[in-house]
Design goal:
- Keywords: Isoprene biosynthesis, Nucleotidyltransferase, Transferase.
- The chain has helices spanning about 35-45, 85-100, 115-125, 175-185, 195-200, 220-230, and strands at about 10-15, 30, 35, 50-60, 75-80, 105, 135-140, 145, 155, 165-170, 205-210.
- It is of the alpha/beta class.
- It has one domain (about 10-230): Spore Coat Polysaccharide Biosynthesis Protein SpsA, Chain A (Alpha-Beta Complex), CATH 3.90.550.10.
- Strand 2 (about 30) and strand 3 (about 35) form a beta hairpin.
Length: about 230
């Protein structure tokens, strides 16, 4: 296992077209201030000096990406994604593996535009402590409830040692490619890259990330994301 990530490639799965939040385009292309959600996300990754390349996995019928200013950036490459997030990540991993099998990959959600360089630095710096790979995460702060099928509380869950999984998620490219492809072949439900590693017996590390690294999933999130981005630019 390579414990010194001298080459880092970022992967952005952006092939989803289902979540439009009531708009006429996929949510990653909704405007957030002066540019789209995805454009903000790409700016953070493309401007980080330790990231050598950013690979974006797109839907084959995507007609929006080429309109982004970032589309012609020399560090950016495109691949055709799949039906699920994991399929898109695997397509990007196939491409990245051919470029540098010794690289590490940062997989980041297209709809998380509030990521900051300081969190990327913390994740990259965690390699010595977590040579198997790690993810950004935030400790659960609220009281957690478990319900039954009818929506009634059945128990209160102890929140100690519970975390919200965030992105980026950071792994050696060879091990992530192997474990993700084998998990998909076994028809395992993969919700994020860490779950593929866990399925293979790997225990990824947790790196405490900023809570403003939100994922835009509802219309109300746009206003909150805009606030976080404006604060970061001050």
């Amino acid at each position: 296992m390579q414990n010194n990530p001298k080459s880092i490639i970022a992967i952005v799965p952006a092939a989803g077209i289902g979540s439009r939040m009531g708009a006429d385009k996929p949510k990653q292309y909704l405007m957030l201030g002066q540019q789209s959600i995805l454009a903000h996300t790409l700016d953070v990754l493309l401007s980080h000096t330790d990231i050598s390349q950013v690979i974006v996995a797109l839907h084959p019928q995507d007609q929006h990406f080429k309109q982004l200013p970032q589309a012609t950036h020399p560090k950016l490459s495109l691949v055709i994604g799949g039906g699920e997030r994991a399929d898109s990540v695997l397509a990007a991993l196939d491409y990245a593996l051919a470029i540098n099998p010794q690289a590490w990959v940062l997989v980041h959600d297209a709809a998380r535009p509030c990521l900051r360089h300081e969190d990327i630095n913390k994740l990259i710096g965690s390699v010595e402590q977590h040579p198997q790979g790690a993810i950004l995460a935030a400790p659960v702060r609220d009281t957690m409830k478990r319900s039954d099928a009818s929506g009634q509380i059945t128990s209160t869950v102890d929140r100690a040692l519970l975390w919200h999984a965030l992105t980026p998620q950071f792994f050696p490219i060879t091990s992530l490619h192997r474990n993700l492809s084998q998990a998909l072949a076994a028809k395992v439900s993969i919700t994020d890259e860490a779950s593929a590693m866990e399925w293979a017996g790997v225990r990824p590390g947790l790196v405490n990330g900023r809570v403003d690294n939100i994922k835009v999933t509802h219309p109300d999130d746009l206003q909150l994301a805009a606030l976080f981005i404006s604060q970061a630019q001050q």
